[in-house]
Fold these 2 entries.
Entry 1:
Amino acid sequence: MSFEFDPFDPQYWDNPYPWYTEMRHNHPIYRHKTEKARVWPHYWMISRAKDVNDALFDWKSFSSASGTLIDTDASLLPETIFHMDPPRHDQLRSVLARVLTPSRVANLEPIIRQQAQDLVDAFKARGSADVATEFARSIPTMTMTRLMNLPWGEHEKFLKWNLATLGGADFTSEASLQAWGEMDAYWKQLVVDRRKEQTDDLVSMILHAQVEGEHLTDSEISGFCGLLHDASQNTTINMICNAIISLGRFPDQRRKLQENPEMWPSALEELLRYESPVQGLAREAMCDVTLSDVTIPKGDQVLLLYGSANHDETVYDKPDVLDLDRTIKTHWTFGHGIHYCLGNAVARLETRVSIQVLLENLGDWEVVEDGIVRGQLVPTRGVNAAPITFEPVMA
């Protein structure tokens, strides 16, 4: 019987893990033909943890320069370090690493906690909520506006742009390109405005940073703005949603976490492993690469399946079970290598605090399974709707 798996086909979105398992065991280097291809007529999927890890560290063989989204012309998108290789990637990455300091991240915690509490207060007496639209979407957007010193009154526009550009199957559709263009114009004007008056936000810090004695160009700064806007919202929205769903499906684990808050450091890593918010990102093969007796030709696109690597039986015992007692030595939720997610500390903080506030206020909750609506599988494990029910909590 022939094997078929298409990460863009909704039939696989609810539970892709049995197909990941089949790929790891029998089709570790899997070629998929792209219907209505725009750039690449086919792409390869790499599913085993070791192969994914090796590819992430070998940027000379697996390049990001042609983009990290499947069958997408990266030249149509704003330039960011996502689509760069060294040396310029490393130079620009160092700028963000210098300004996104641990103290800046830590100072966000009370702000995130208050935002999460305000959101829960709005629905806790009702006994039900859609935690995707009423909870998870607001927290990363609020955090992004704080980091970049953007007006909260425009938060709906920022969220709309994010969902339009990264929340669907076609990242260069007419609607997506319009959103990319509007954002690009917004960031370029923001750079002009910040040059007139420096504050202590990330944008101003990047604007006045130097690389080898030279300031960044306006285009590079606006690219950073786009990166901060896009990456800080979409993945964390889904990270929070998927963690809530997972804890709803494993009530014993949720209660254990509620009763033993000292478990949070390891429990958070297990939540991130179990439902990785980024299930896969693309690379381009820069030379012929042979893995598991299969040769990926130079110039072909490759999808590195982080979600499959995070469920690899050679790394984790019973990987399809959420076990908050599990000791996690590594996972691929934030990638690895030169493109390891710089915003991981912010995302971890937002997820932990959000779930803590839910546990403190609601205690138990149940997932309304037939109400869950998945938006995509790659690059992010998208959640468009995630209804839960719980005992109403009176003010």
Entry 2:
Amino acid sequence: MTKIQAAVKPYRNSDPAMAMVREFEERVEELGYSSLVKEAATYAEESLQLQLEYPNPICIKHDSEEVITAEKLKAELRRGLKQKTREAVHEQSWQWKLTSMRREDMSLNFNGCFWWLSGWKQCQTHTVAGMFELYEQLLPLYACQTTHTDTTGKVLCRLCNKAPESVAHVLAGCTALAQTKYTTRHNAALKILFFEILQDLGLVDSVPPWYSLLKPKPVYESHNA
């Protein structure tokens, strides 16, 4: 994607410096050396035919002869990448079953489930992995009774061993998490309200982001509160 977009950029930009880049790449290609344009055409040839003509470079889809303008190229490349990824996952039997059921699950909305990834840039890796495990229902109960990808029959929670491990149990019913993760989540939620109240009373100047590690001080004082 990077190679193709980099090759298209000089052909849609009127900057004189980009004209020099175009001339250089075309000259290099004429001499038979490796060039950015040639590499981009090679990467694109699986599904697209590049037609790099200044000032309106376009791509033509092999399957439908549809013309893709430079403005729509990025979205088309992403769509093609998703399709290739989907085909690769389809070859993995158990992964395909899990992802298919997730796509068909009406309770999982793409924007609602994944918007926080764009807003929380410094999210820790294990947090992202844990959220995706919940989204994909990678739990013993789900694997045994729904997808049948696990034939061991072990469905008890791996933390408390007292109840079947399900999404609802992990989020709010596990005794092993009651005094640790649940307490932390409870305090984090109330911390948002607490700082909003502090700001209303003029005790702080701003409210930290909800994922901030900032801890409230024992006492806040001003001439009013």
